[in-house]
Design goal:
CATH topology of one domain: OB fold (Dihydrolipoamide Acetyltransferase, E2P)
Helix content: 25-40%
Radius of gyration: 26 Å
Structural class: alpha+beta
CATH architecture of one domain: Beta Barrel
Strand order of the largest sheet: 3-4-5-7-6
CATH superfamily of one domain: Nucleic acid-binding proteins
Number of helices: 5
Order of helices and strands: HHEEHHEEEEHE
Shape: globular
Number of strands: 7
CATH class of one domain: Mainly Beta
């Protein structure tokens, strides 16, 4: 009888251990109800990439590159042959081009050092530039993109930046503004890029 009780207890203990092991989440598998491997939202991906940039980390898109002369790389949507407009024209009369998909080209005079989410594009290294932002943080450019030439396709927007946004861009990302309003805000002409092509000349 004693042997049967000991055997029964042993079998019960083994069954409990096996059940507990099956209930343990597997490494790398999302165990939240209703989610599978392919259900990660766009917002979650953007938050993760943004967080990585803010901590000084790189991802596949923004890691520094060492291009040879004539070598090209693309980020975002492929260029689709949008109407070409000079940066000077776009900056002189931005309302004329508001909402139209355009193609602009120039040299990158500076770019975001935290995550590669914007660049300042100018006709030449000493000319007035326009800030090009990567649409919805969907893609990034290399952190060492300054000095490369670029073509971007997207739309022109006139946007008011708050003092907090201006301070962040200046103090953390190294941005420069020609004119800052008395309250610390900036009215800026911005180019929202769907895709960009970078080339070393």
């Amino acid at each position: 009888m004693k042997k049967m009780i000991i055997t029964s207890l042993f079998v019960s203990a083994m069954s409990f251990a096996a059940f507990a092991q099956d209930a343990t989440p597997k490494r790398g598998i999302d165990t939240m109800p209703g989610k599978d491997k392919g259900s990660q939202t766009k917002e979650t991906k953007q938050d993760e990439m943004k967080k990585g940039g803010e901590e000084g980390k790189t991802n596949d898109e923004n890691k520094p590159v060492d291009l040879k002369v004539g070598e090209k790389i693309t980020r975002g949507a492929p260029l689709a042959g949008a109407e070409k407009v000079s940066l000077a024209k776009a900056l002189k009369n931005p309302s004329k081009y508001h909402g139209k998909t355009l193609s602009v080209s120039g040299v990158i005079v500076r770019s975001c050092k935290m995550e590669g989410c914007w660049m300042e594009l100018a006709p030449s290294a000493t000319a007035k530039s326009i800030r090009v932002k990567m649409k919805d943080h969907d893609f990034f450019i290399p952190l060492n993109a300054a000095g490369l030439n670029a073509t971007a396709e997207g739309t022109v927007e006139v946007k008011n930046l708050t003092k907090a946004e201006v301070d962040h861009l200046v103090n953390e990302d190294g941005a420069k503004f020609d004119k800052i309003n008395r309250d610390g805000s900036v009215t800026e002409v911005t180019f929202i890029a769907n895709g960009v092509e970078l080339i070393k000349k």
